[in-house]
Amino acid sequence: LLQAAIDAGVHINASCGGTGVCGTCKVLIEKGKVETTRTEKLSEEEYEQGVRQACQSRVISDLTVYIPVESRLEKAIISREEKVAPEALATGWRFNPPLSKFFVELPPPTLKDNTSDLSRVLRGLKHQYHLSNMTVDFDVVRKLPQLLRDSHWKATVTTLVTAVKPRGAEKRRPRVINIEPGDTRGKYYSLAFDIGTTTVCGQLLDLNRGKAIAQGIDYNEQIKYGEDVITRIAYCQKPGGLKKLQQAVIATINGVINQLLTQTGVELKYIAHIVVAG
Ligand code: FES
């Protein structure tokens, strides 16, 4: 029954991840039949009333189930965290994003100047911004020819300098991670996520202003597979368990991203970077 509820997107608390020992998944069977393994978590009286542990009940027929308030998510937790000021998480940090955007205007190719598109972009970055010794992501190279011609050789290049030197590299080199048509320097955003056991909190940052402009929060959907980390680790040992937990946290993150974009009207394509801690 617990699995059926999860599949249907209905939350029932399941602190022990469905092993039958916590008793947080109690529900009242109002109509229909289940086959239940009774544990000491269920009193005689509860059993008589039709209360069952969802994780210990096999569904035999169509059911009408009442989920008592103790078996639902505790809404108080999330409303308390919503009051955190958007800038609070960034307090004390110096604004110094690892990303930069550079607008380049390039001369179109001619018979005398027939260098490749990539060399043309790198040459533009060197002449206009004195940038050199850069690496370029393959995705960027792949879209260059069409993008440069469609945008009449005006484009915005996003570079990333990681805080840590990549393994095996001699030194940190700026890396071109994106190129966009036209001048998009005014639209320059990043996402920061904190993945907690109970809640996932995200901030949308305007990298031009150095400010968090929106904050979103939601319950970590992994909660339905266990309330604490140990139970979730145990759940990962089950066949397909790891994948389910991964999909649950991705769904939560995507939901929070949606909240942030809806709140601000920022388009997804202008999110240049995302940092996740957990
Ligand atoms: S007893 Fe059912 S989830 Fe713990």
From TrEMBL:
InterPro entries: 2Fe-2S_ferredoxin-like_sf, 2Fe-2S_ferredoxin-type, Beta-grasp_dom_sf, Corrinoid_activation_enz, Raco-like_middle, Raco-like_middle_sf, RACo_linker
Domain 2Fe-2S ferredoxin-type positions: 1-71
GO MF annotation list: iron-sulfur cluster binding
Protein name (record): 2Fe-2S ferredoxin-type domain-containing protein
Species this protein is from: marine sediment metagenome
